[in-house]
Design goal:
The protein has 213 residues and is mainly α. The chain is built from nine helices and no strands. The longest helix has 25 residues. It is globular and about 50 Å long. The two termini are 31 Å apart.
Length: 213
């Protein structure tokens, strides 16, 4: 890689943006584990991850393996279809995301008992979704390269000339269908998230854009 490509890869990157991106990716990964463990259904992207996990015969503790496989495939697609979305932040997302999923499993086991009431399971899901909205909002607002699934959504948005929340809803529905066919856990959380995730992430992104400046 020559010096001009290196400068381009790191253009506009600040310590603040790097920190926001890393924290955002970790929170997004934690959310995947929280929703998967709560047993009320995965969020749409989580459905895709959980579906591949089930299809490959992996355990819940091996969920990060499935997430990494899907993310690598999506990054390759985004690289060719929307290369400007692939940056140093994308590499950070790929490296950190699986760790975030594993961290989420550890945190869930630490703070929630194995046999939980419905209220505690709902609480775990609410916390997980807030992590997702915060995490993706931080990633997108940092604008130094986004995670694989968000990159895919942005490519769809650009190609179809849609608002982000529209592209997000459509991609979420596709994730749910594919994940379900592969064996992912479908539940009430899946339906709710498919409807509200797009607008909520767009809202949190605007909030963090103001914070980052």
């Amino acid at each position: 890689m020559n010096s001009s490509l290196i400068r381009k890869a790191f253009k506009g990157i600040t310590i603040k943006k790097l920190i926001f991106t890393v924290i955002g990716v970790l929170l997004s990964g934690v959310e995947i584990s929280f929703n998967a463990r709560a047993g009320l259904g995965n969020d749409p992207v989580g459905m895709l991850y959980d579906g591949l996990r089930a299809f490959l015969g992996l355990t819940q503790e091996q969920l990060s393996v499935a997430t990494n496989l899907i993310n690598i495939g999506l990054i390759v697609f985004v690289f060719f279809a929307g290369r400007h979305y692939v940056n140093i932040g994308t590499v950070i997302c790929l490296v950190v995301y699986g760790f975030g999923v594993d961290l989420g499993s550890l945190l869930y086991e630490a703070f929630f008992p194995e046999q939980m009431t419905m209220m505690l399971r709902i609480l775990a899901v609410v916390i997980g979704c807030l992590f997702l909205y915060t995490g993706l909002g931080m990633e997108i607002a940092s604008d130094i390269g986004i995670d694989a699934t968000s990159g895919f959504i942005m490519v769809v948005r650009d190609r179809m000339h849609w608002q982000y929340h529209t592209a997000k809803v459509v991609c979420d529905i596709l994730s749910v269908v594919i994940g379900f066919l592969l064996g992912g856990k479908l539940g009430v959380v899946t339906v709710i998230c498919a409807v509200i995730n797009g607008p909520m992430i767009q809202l949190f992104t605007k909030l963090f854009q103001k914070i980052i400046g």
